[in-house]
Amino acid sequence: MKDITKYQGIFPAFYACYDANGEIDPNAVRALTKYFIEKGVKGVYVGGSSGECIYQGVAERKLLLENVMEAAEGKLTVIAHVACNNTRDSMELARHAESLGVDAIASIPPIYFRLPERSIAQYWNDISSAAPNTDFIIYNIPQLAGVALTIPLLREMLKNLNVIGVKNSSMPVQDIQMFKDEGTKGDRPFVVFNGPDEQLISGLMMGADGGIGGTYGAMPELYVKLFELFYAGEREQARALQYDLDNIIYALCAAKCNMYASIKEVLRRREGIDVGGVRPPLAAYTDADDAAVAHAVSLIDAAMKRWIG
Questions:
Q1: What positions carry a catalytic annotation?
Q2: The pLDDT of residue 299 is above 80
Q3: Are 278 and 284 in contact (CB under 8 A)?
Q4: How far apart are CA 227 and CA 229, in angstroms?
Q5: Predicted confidence band at 184 (pLDDT cuts at 50, 70, 90)?
Q6: Residue 109 and residue 87: Cα distance in Å, rounded?
Q7: What pTM was estimated for this model as a whole?
């Protein structure tokens, strides 16, 4: 039986780390990794949407993951998102991730062209074949990928014994129940991660084993606290904390810049960690965003005082 306890908990989606010239900054990658270790999260999800993967080349993604693994020193569960919009590059990233010893690889479906489910399954199985000794996690994010994970497609993928779970970023929380029920038939170990940060408590109620989120990095302690409250049976407290988190998320999204540009500015102001800006065509942070980010920082500070002390 596979060990799935290492996937139970809070997983910040790792941010792209750039230097002043917009290139991958290994020092910033290592600093961000150590920050997450210090904050007590279970693991990190590297190279996904928050990592701006679709705007990076294969070599850049390898460099970033290499530095995460070096700095993590086995203290974090590392899930590497390896999908590119072609099978060959995706398999190359999968091979590389396995060579580094990641705990799991993950993949969205191919985007742009509308492919039949058999082609999506072949794409995922080809990627998995390049990392035959590594767990595989399906990333379901239909609002961006343009295609949703269906139960028939999941059943087909479950023929692959490396398929260990789903990162579910669809908005309907019942999807978590459906995927969990299907994946655990026959007592198979199977995990489902909640994706939408605004509904982590709802996802946990529906059976999610943990969460992977893009705003977790701005305030990891608060998400860890929510997870702890939920499993301690303090459901009303957990709900109140979710409301606070949602208000912070709305504040982060209120700026004119891309949300990840806002979050990176929050990290500079609150933690002294500089991971650069965002890569074009994402909207960069400007002075016009100062008020929105200052408001987000004030909300985070207040929530930290209320929930962490």
A1: 139, 167
A2: yes
A3: yes
A4: 6
A5: very high
A6: 10
A7: 0.97
